Amino acid sequence: MSRVLPRDVLVTGAGGFLGGHVCRALAERGLTVRGLVRRRDTRLAAGVDPRYVGGLDDRAALAEALEGVEGVVHLAAHVHQPSRRRGGGSGDEAFHAVNVEGTRVLLEAAVAAGVRDFVLASSTKAVGEGEDRPYTEATRPAPADPYGATKLEAERLVREYADRLHAPVLRLPLVYGPGMKANALRLFDAVAEGTPLPLGAVHNRRSFLFTGNLTAAMLATLESDAGSDTFFVSDGEDLSTAELARRIGRALGRPARLVPVPAPALRAAGRAGDLLARLVPWPLTSAAVDRLLGSLAVDTGKLTEATGYRPPYTVDEGLRITADWYRGRARRP
Q1: What is the pLDDT of residues 87-101, one digit of tens each?
Q2: Is 120 helix (H, G, I), strand (E, B) or coil?
Q3: What are the φ/ψ torsions at residue 261 (nearest 5 degrees)?
Q4: In degrees rounded to 5, what are phi and psi of residue 196?
Q5: Beta strand 71-74 pairing with 8-12
Q6: Which of 76, 135, 183, 301 has the greatest CB tally within 10 Å of its CB?
């Protein structure tokens, strides 16, 4: 059975990479979109009504932002681990304050305001860092860092409220698309600049997610009675890290320069990088090498069976759209 989309939606993290795509997708379906942000100079997608809060613990501002709202898409999260150098703390408190307590306060405010739909953008990291077999929703979670652990706690909070809300939880792998940042952008930069990449001997298996497929999955869960559950999402085609670089090269019209470095040599370089990272910012660490060599694939069969979701974009189509944005970004002054 199909459901009617909420007419008015509040999107947290509306000024971020995912927030811009989600806000535009909702507006294109004719919904009224409010963007929850902390800074008044945050740029939002066209037509989005900004609502300002000091943080997710700002109960009065949340109550005002949620007046008349039927749906919430919760994208805001604390993602980055601060540096541990020079006696710095672990930063675990910030992960818990935002990802767990912030979600709790938002859920309470949403229920009090009469919201009927609540979508949580979670992460594959809530389950772990990957294994040889693709993750399914039956895989026992074993998050490896504070971000993953607190996203898993947030998922459990949402499930506790599922008797009062239609509450989809979407576990996302690495997301790419126009406006992307961090690792996805760095890989595009490396291929575009012709940087030799030590990936030629890497034969892992990883899932990725184009922004257009993310928004399609989100809408599919909102429009399906069976969409109030926890789901993995992906483009539906898994690639090795090396193959992803090759596909990016084709999309950019520039071949990726892949060097076949044996895995033991990469791991040794990562261990050396661990020592350097104690002194200066250094990207090649054991954790980074594990991500390069390891597999992290997800099975989206449950999402398809429950909602009928099919990725509207192939990986190659998503990379071409992203490459067009990337080239245009490079041309801008």
Answers
A1: 444 578 999 999 999
A2: strand
A3: -90, 125
A4: -65, 130
A5: parallel
A6: 76
pLDDT of 113-122, one tens digit each? 999 999 999 9
- What are the φ/ψ torsions at residue 180 (nearest 5 degrees)? -65, 160
| Claim: this prediction has a pTM higher than 0.85 | yes
CA distance 80 to 102: 16
What are the structural domains, with CATH classification, of the chain? 8-172 (3.40.50.720)
CA torsion sign, 238 to 243 to 248 to 253?
A: negative
CA–chain centroid gap for 243, Å, is: 21
2 DSSP 8-state letter: B
Q: Which sign does the torsion angle of CA 22, 102, 209, 141 carry?
A: negative
**Token couple for 92:** 């675990």
Tell me what pLDDT residue 36 has. Answer: 96
Coil/strand/helix, residue 215: helix
The Cα–Cα gap between 132 and 241 comes to 15
Give the C-alpha separation, 4 to 263, whole Å: 50
Structure token pair of residue 160: 């506790």
> Phi and psi for 33 in degrees, rounded to 5?
-120, 130
| Distance, first Cα to last Cα, the chain | 50
Cα dist from 263 to 137, 196, 238, whole Å: 30, 16, 20
Tokens of 268: 């040794």
CA neighbours closer than 13 Å in the CB half-sphere of residue 164? 13
Q: β-strand 71-74 against 174-176: which pairing, if any?
A: unpaired
Mean pLDDT by 10 residues, the chain (333 residues): 91 96 96 95 93 94 96 93 46 91 97 98 96 95 96 98 97 97 93 95 95 98 97 97 97 96 91 88 83 92 97 98 91 55
Q: Which helix (H) or strand (E) holds 174?
A: strand 174-176
User: What single-letter amino acid sits at 203?
Assistant: H
Angle at 51 between CA 48 and CA 56, to 5 degrees: 125
